[in-house]
Amino acid sequence: MQYVILLVLIALVIGFFVMIWKASPHWRWYSLVTASITLLLTVAMLFPTAIILKSRSAWHRVKEDQEVRLAAALAERETLNFGNPNDPTAGKGAIQLNQELAKLGAEAGRRWRNLRVADMQGKTIRLVQPPPPADEFGEQPDPPPAEDQGQLVPESLVVYAFAEQPRPGFEFPVPNFYLGEFRVTASDADSVTIEPTSALTPAQEQVIGNRQAVGWALYELLPLDGHEPFMAEGSRPDDENLFGRPNDELITQLLGGRVSEEVLQDYRRDGSRALPDDPKPNRWVKVEFTKPYTENVDSLSQSGALEGGFFDGSGRALDSRLQRGDDGVTFDVGDQLVVTERAAEALFDDGVARLVDTYFVRTLNDYRFVLRNSRQRLAEREMRKKELEFENNVLQQAVTSSQNLLVKAQGEQLQLEQDKAQTVVEREAIAQYVEELEQRVKQTRETLVRLYRSNQQLEDELQRSYGTN
């Protein structure tokens, strides 16, 4: 094709010069020169134009490729930000993950991790923050300016301490033991001094005193219990499981051997369909609204999470970060909601909802109450232990006294038995002697009777003798 175009071009040039030669008798010289120069420039410009067109074609293909890549990048960004509702394996979007991370941050409060024990004097413990790890070139990052170095932890803040330990599959150390509740007494840019707010348990004193806790983590708030952390990764809620499929392996790994089998079954059944004999507080109902309904979710009072918690006694939001600040939450016809059985009965009585299904929902733990209650129960058990030890000592003394009395009584019993045996022997001897005496008395009486009769006979004979004379 290139040669054909070249031949056509040569033919046109030859034809042009032929026409110029034919027209030369009638044209002036400057017209001939101008036409020739124009032709030569036109031919000369054909080659740059071809190169430019070829380059433009290549860049046009690059543009089309970039547009395709841009569309794919926009679609990927859409998927990364919002997820893919058509692909269950795509996972959650970055926006939703950021919202969940912000929610977890609000629930967990501030936290200071990877602390080390520098000094312990009595109940006072000084923790330091080790320097940050070196970069890829082995250089330590520059410390912040002196004016930016404040307190690592605010003074007088009550914090909850946990011992950290590396675990397989986790990038950072994971808390594995509760060390107690402490108050910050002093703090600077890289260290904090804490003291316990109440007496520690023997196990906590042992772990802290023996420095078995390699790493310390301080939390402003105690962790909140939830349903989702115990669900299998990637599982989604459905009609059979309200929160997703429970992760039996994780539940057994974290709680196996530490709680009763009944509590373990509550974790494994969390979110499943309810049974007829389930306790009423654990029976939650999925309802579908048949009429528009509005519910106020903000408490009349407002306080921080550290002061009164996140919610009041009726479940309305106390923390300003959770309050909506409007007229409430509105539900349209067809919207579904999972509520307690008591709340569902109220909706049924109002005629605004209908029953869809009933589920078993594990009662969440309030760890502030659980830890304080556990501490109180441990104190009561310690007191009861002392009482039982005192009673046991008294009982041991009583048993010892009883044993001594028993030994003494056994000695007296032995003596009495010996006296009894001797008494029996003596009584038999006395009885035999009495019998002998009675026999002798009888014989003597018989002898006396015989002698008396003999004397009477002699007396009669004497009287008869004297009377005759």
Q: What features would you describe in this structure?
A:
The chain is α+β, with helices and mostly antiparallel strands. The protein has helices at 2-23, 29-82, 94-108, 202-209, 248-255, 261-268, 305-308, 341-350, 367-468; strands at 111-121, 124-128, 158-165, 174-187, 191-196, 215-219, 283-289, 293-295, 329-331, 336-340, 353-360. Among the domains are: 2-82; 94-131 and 149-219, Beta Barrel (Elongation Factor Tu (Ef-tu), domain 3). Helix 1 runs antiparallel to helix 2 (29-82). The protein is rod-shaped and about 250 Å long. Strands 1-2-5-4-3-6 form a six-stranded antiparallel β-barrel.
Summarize the structure.
By secondary structure, the chain is of the alpha+beta class.
Record keyword descriptors for this entry.
469 residues; rod-shaped; alpha+beta; 9 helices; 6-stranded antiparallel barrel
Compressed to H and E, one letter per element, the order equals HHHEEEEEHEHHEEHEEHEH
Gap between N and C termini: 218 Å
The count of helical stretches stands at 9
Structural class: alpha+beta
* Rg of Cα set: 55 Å
Strand content: 15-25%
Main pleated-sheet profile: 6 strands, antiparallel, barrel
Shape: rod-shaped
The CATH architecture name of the domain at 94-131 and 149-219 reads Beta Barrel
Arrangement of strands in the largest sheet: 1-2-5-4-3-6
Number of strands: 11
Average pLDDT reading: 82
Under CATH, the topology of the domain at 94-131 and 149-219 can be stated as Elongation Factor Tu (Ef-tu), domain 3
- CATH class of the domain at 94-131 and 149-219, please? Mainly Beta
